[in-house]
Design a protein that fits this description.
241 residues; alpha/beta; TIM Barrel; 3-stranded parallel β-sheet; 13 strands; Carbohydrate esterase family 4 protein
């Protein structure tokens, strides 16, 4: 089982500061990595099915206790469904707090708890973390480095979480696609029904028509998605939020 990796702040500050790499775009030509934050929620399987039907895969940044408790049986079933259908699973921290407002110990706790959950449920230890709200500072980057994770932002925000209509979000995608960049790293949000059922199908069609390959984040970077892959655990009374 994953140990609670922790380095005292005093020790970290007395050593040479090492900051995690911040990723805001893909590197492999002609790729798009569609990412989805804030799950696992009830539309996860629909998103997975839509992607797979189009010959695509996505990357899901999961919280431990946001819209749902990650240990609820339905939530664990959704997570396993996405993982077993070839999608990448990554960390969005435990409870979607602004990490820049937390202490050193609290930052590690937010990271560790969801890492532990993903290792328990899937047997994987993620190599990537997306900070809630895209907010980070040097302390967050240092904690991420210690935990062996890269910090992922984006270069296209669909603005779905800000209340943008489907047409507005599609316009944002159209604007970027029309410039035909080599790669695109979009931000979308899994718990929004309109994103799952209206935005995503149109986005996939537009991206494929433009000739992009829809791959996982790790694939669009030429990196490994996980620091470790092992056997999942067996639920017990400690698996709770």
């Amino acid at each position: 089982m994953l140990a609670k990796l922790f380095v005292p702040l005093a020790l970290a500050l007395t050593s040479v500061a090492q900051l995690a790499q911040v990723i805001s775009q893909c590197t492999q030509p002609n790729t798009v990595a569609l990412t989805f934050d804030d799950g696992p929620w009830i539309y996860l399987k629909d998103i997975s099915d839509t992607l797979v039907a189009a010959g695509a895969v996505g990357t899901f940044f999961f919280n431990g206790n946001n819209y749902d408790c990650i240990y609820n049986p339905d939530a664990m079933d959704r997570i396993k469904y996405a993982y077993n259908h070839g999608h990448q699973i990554s960390s969005h921290t435990w409870s979607h707090l602004d990490l820049t407002s937390l202490t050193w110990d609290q930052i590690h706790d937010e990271m560790w708890r969801v890492e532990q959950a993903l290792q328990r449920i899937l047997g994987v230890y993620p190599a990537f973390m997306r900070p809630p709200y895209g907010n980070y500072n040097d302390q967050v980057l240092q904690a991420s480095y210690i935990r062996g994770q890269k910090v992922v932002i984006w270069d296209l925000d669909s603005e779905d979480s800000l209340g943008a209509s489907v047409q507005t979000s599609l316009g944002l995608y159209d604007s970027v696609i029309s410039q035909r960049p080599s790669t695109i790293l979009p931000l979308n949000h899994e718990p929004l029904e309109t994103t799952a059922h209206q935005l995503l199908p149109s986005v996939i069609q537009k991206l494929k028509a433009a000739g992009y390959n829809l791959v996982t984040l790790a694939e669009c970077l030429g990196m490994q998605p996980y620091q470790a892959v092992g056997a999942p655990g067996t639920p017990d009374s400690s698996w709770q939020c």
